[in-house]
Known about the structure:
Blueprint: H1 9-58, H2 64-148
Helix pairs in contact: 1-2
Amino acid sequence: MKRFRFRLEAVRTLREVAERGQREAFGAAQQRYATAEAAVQAAAQARRELFDHVAGTRSGVFRPSEQTAGLEALRQAAHREAAAEKDRQEAATARDRARETWLEARRALQIIERLEEKARAEHREAADKAEQSLLDELASIGAARASAK
């Protein structure tokens, strides 16, 4: 019996490469999301600290220039936090899109893997039948020789 050869080996190789690339892209998207999440946390913490500082300066002598500068700094901190949140949302969308693309590539690879498993099982079954046929033939030849004696 011939050695097993999967006819779609080249397709499997291409799909493995594509799946690996999509998995790496998903990993990069996850990393970008984690970085964006950390940036949101840092911006929120900075805004809270700035707010506490501005609130602390209000309890003393009122200085209009300090108040204006503090409020402007708070406005800018809120703007930075909003921008970080927007980046996080974009990173989450990109991460979800990359995950779907990777899962689609994974499913395509699994289809080929199942086809290969099925082809291997069919080949194994054909080899077993051929071997059994040969054994039956040898047994019948042996029986014929024994009865001829």
